[in-house]
Design a protein that fits this description.
- 32% of the residues lie in helices and 25% in strands.
- With 595 residues, it is of the alpha/beta class.
- It folds into 2 domains: 3-272, Divalent-metal-dependent TIM barrel enzymes (TIM Barrel, Alpha-Beta Barrel); 287-590, 2,3-Dihydroxybiphenyl 1,2-Dioxygenase, domain 1 (Roll).
- The strands form 3 sheets. Strands 17, 18, 19, 20, 21, 22, 23, 24 and 25 form a 9-stranded mixed beta sheet that branches.
- This is 3-dehydroshikimate dehydratase.
- Its EC number is 4.2.1.118.
């Protein structure tokens, strides 16, 4: 698999972008005309830099608004093209992208378009150059790749082919199956982009909301399968216009982009039954092994766990780390921290083979995490998620492996639970990368996202999970101008009312819920007075659907972390989403400003 990326995907100047592309492991680049125009370096200097970095210049793009015009405009277009051909020769690029005309086209005649493109191809052939004609989704007369291919066939020039762009094809709902009818050697270039499902004009959708493969709603696996079966042998190249990616660190974004192509190639090969470009299979998470919180002083959080009913399991024999558990729910408190306020720092996941899981993550370019391990201690391999959260793998039973490194613990108390879900708030610049990370590295599937109204604007929530719910990670994205929300761990129990009463008796303060919420519950669900009174007394929240019920409560926020205790009744599989606006408002109203 050869890979490439358009320089328009990245922030910074052209030289910075090229260094980042090489560092990320790309084989080639598409150089955007606008990036070259804005660079102080000459085309010869850019060519030499690419040679030193080991990058091929696979495409020069774009040349716009050429075909379907009157003769006077056509003559001027040929003049423009010759000037760009001069630049390409200096740059060392042999293929130029010509987009279907969106601005100056006045003649909707395929014969005219083919004649004009044919003359352009003849001029290019004199210089040893190729023309890749692409149908833009908003083209004036040509907006379908099948139409663009008919014109290329009609022009019948050996150095004139087509460029296929997944966005322009899938955003219009065009069937990509007909790609297999195009000879592979006439597909001169392939551009890949994902995108969320949005109801908006296609130009704005394209210019601002494209995503890297694996982050949106397009079926790129099937799309790429059609292209490869057609016989295409060129690079898999990314062309992603996205306002976020063009503001974030160029090196990190390039690595993020490269990961997306590795993931897509693996998924496509698996779907087609091919053996090339395969990764080790994603290690299916079997359970949450532990959750780790870091902070300089975690006494307040420790007191909270004690009042809920967690058991103190001891101190680590070589590190300032303590373990608390409630059955299978294990929370590690680590005071080896550079920040004072408690923060959710790591997730441990049980898998069948930790080495395979870590090897897959390495192949996807996930940054490895080092943690000092002393003699006699279990080494847990880990990588860092985009927001810095560390993900550890363990293929041994916790109680007979790393848990034995803690001394001075107490016998279990009656409260027994498990980690139901881990809610990770994401900075605005990390959200899309996090979706790709958790899907590619951990093999989690993305549920439909939803927007939750909060005091500072809409919070976008995207749940990443295993099919069986063994690992559930809701990702929350606050508006860019709002503070990043606190993160939380939800612990599942069998009887939340008993746990709540016990915790209340031991002095735990719950997040207070307004009376208006319970009046609304009565109206929505018709709960009997006794049930409603218990919920109100204990500040419990409630939800119900056709499959079951969900009862839960929240602790106050400590630093950047809080806990949620939940009970699922029947087949309820959600997260109490209707209660999220109440929780966000209550947290803000009780002294903690969150999104």
């Amino acid at each position: 698999m050869r890979t490439a990326i358009a320089t328009v995907c990245l922030s910074g100047g052209l030289v910075e972008k090229l260094h980042a592309c090489a560092a990320a492991g790309f084989d080639g680049v598409e150089i955007m005309d606008a990036d070259l125009v804005a660079a102080y370096e000459s085309p010869e200097e850019i060519r030499a830099l690419c040679d030193r970095l080991g990058l091929t210049i696979d495409l020069f793009q774009p040349f716009r608004d050429f075909e379907g015009v009157d003769e006077a405009t056509f003559a001027d277009n040929l003049r423009r093209a010759e000037a760009k051909f001069d630049v390409m020769e200096r740059l060392g690029a042999d293929t130029v992208l010509v987009c279907s005309n969106v601005a100056t086209a006045t003649i909707g005649d395929d014969e005219v378009a083919a004649r004009q493109l044919g003359e352009l191809a003849d001029r290019a052939a004199d210089r040893g150059l190729r023309i890749a004609y692409e149908a833009l989704a908003w083209g004036r007369f040509v907006d379908d790749y099948r139409h663009a291919w008919r014109i290329v066939e009609l022009a019948d020039r050996p150095n004139l082919g087509t460029c296929l762009d997944s966005f322009h094809i899938l955003s219009r709902g065009h069937d990509p199956a007909a790609i297999e009818q195009i000879p592979g050697d006439k597909i001169f270039f392939l551009q890949l982009a994902d995108a969320p499902a949005l109801d908006m004009d296609v130009l704005s959708w394209s210019r601002h909301h494209r995503l890297f493969p694996g982050e949106g709603s397009f079926d790129l696996t099937t799309f790429l399968g059609h292209v490869l079966r057609a016989g295409y042998t060129g690079p898999l190249s990314l062309e992603v216009f996205n306002d976020t990616f063009r503001q974030t660190d160029v090196v990190r974004t390039a690595g993020h982009a490269r990961r997306s192509l590795t993931w897509l190639a693996d998924r496509t090969a698996e779907a087609a039954g091919w053996s090339t470009d395969r990764l080790a299979a994603a290690a299916a998470p079997l359970a949450v092994d532990f959750v780790e919180v870091k902070g300089e002083d975690l006494a307040e959080l420790e007191e909270m766990l004690d009042r809920i009913g967690f058991t103190f399991r001891g101190r680590h024999r070589s590190k300032p780390v303590r373990l608390w558990s409630a059955g299978e729910a294990r929370i590690v408190l680590n005071e080896q921290a550079r920040h004072a306020a408690p923060q959710l720092a790591a997730i441990g996941v049980r898998v069948d083979d930790a080495a395979d899981a870590a090897d897959r993550a390495a192949a996807l370019g996930a940054p490895r995490v080092f943690r000092r391990t002393y003699a006699g201690e279990q080494e847990l391999r880990a990588v860092a998620a985009p927001d810095g959260t560390e993900v550890y793998w363990n293929d041994q039973p916790a109680e007979s492996s790393w848990v034995t490194e803690f001394d001075g613990g107490e016998p279990d108390q009656p409260f027994s639970g498990s980690v139901d879900h881990i809610n990770l708030a994401q900075p605005w610049q990390d959200f899309d990368e996090a979706v790709l990370f958790y899907s590619s590295v951990l093999g989690l599937a993305a549920e439909s996202s939803m927007d939750v109204p909060g005091p500072s604007g809409l919070v976008r929530s995207q749940v990443m999970r295993t099919d069986d719910g063994a690992l559930r990670i809701p990702l929350n994205l606050a508006p860019p101008t709002a503070p990043v929300p606190a993160q939380h761990v939800a612990v599942r129990c069998e009887d939340v009312i008993t746990v709540a009463r016990h915790a209340r008796e031991r002095g735990l303060l719950f997040l207070p819920i307004p009376d208006n919420y319970y009046d609304d519950l009565a109206a929505r669900f018709g709960l009997d007075a006794a049930t409603l009174e218990v919920l109100r007394e204990l500040d419990l929240l409630y939800d119900r659907d056709a499959d079951g019920e969900f009862v839960h409560f929240y602790t106050p926020i400590v630093g950047g972390v809080f806990l949620e205790i939940v009970e699922r009744r029947g087949g309820y599989d959600g997260y109490g989403a209707p209660n999220a606006p109440v929780r966000l408002a209550a947290q803000r109203g009780n002294g903690t400003v969150t999104a």
